[in-house]
Amino acid sequence: MSNYPTPAGSSALAERGVSRQYLTFTLGGELFAMPIEQIREIIEFAGMTEIPLMPAFLRGVINMRGAVVPVIDLAVRFGRERTEIARRTCIVIIEVEQEGQMLLLGVLVDAVNEVLTVEPGQVEQRPAFGARIRAEFIEGMINLDQRFVIALDIRLVLSVEELATLIGVAAEAGAVTAE
């Protein structure tokens, strides 16, 4: 597909009341958004290598210009059914920081929609209840006229520490069942 430019320092600008850009995508029929600051690339789904004994949210790995990139199934991360691969399925490549090092993670989504420029007044507080994902995963609700789009807090959704803990638990469970 295409690369989306990432404006430098835009998260700091958003805190000062300046507009911010979000990539919108669908997942299980729902519309979500994530800030574009950490997005490096969006690629069409062309397959991946599955890794045995990993938790369901870690669908596999892809080779991206010689780098091994883990691919997270966002639907499973949210406690939903596995994403069905279809014609518009994409992998959003996101850069996350862990211990001062930048890591690439792929996020599997049903389809990428568009980049929105959102004014600070369009972002509402996250709901205390009613969302079908963990509340801490929600950065806020983007108000688009008559509907809301869930803006994700990618740092928490893709917390490398939490994902590593979950992978460790799955590996231990796999070792126990293999005995």
Automatic annotation (TrEMBL):
Pfam families: CheW. PROSITE patterns: CHEW (PS50851). One of its GO terms (cellular component) is cytosol. InterPro entries: CheW (IPR039315), CheW-like_dom_sf (IPR036061), CheW-lke_dom (IPR002545). Signal peptide: none annotated. SMART domains: CheW. Residues 19-163 form the CheW-like domain. GO terms for biological process: chemotaxis; signal transduction. This is Purine-binding chemotaxis protein CheW. The lineage of its organism: Bacteria, Pseudomonadati, Pseudomonadota, Betaproteobacteria, Neisseriales.
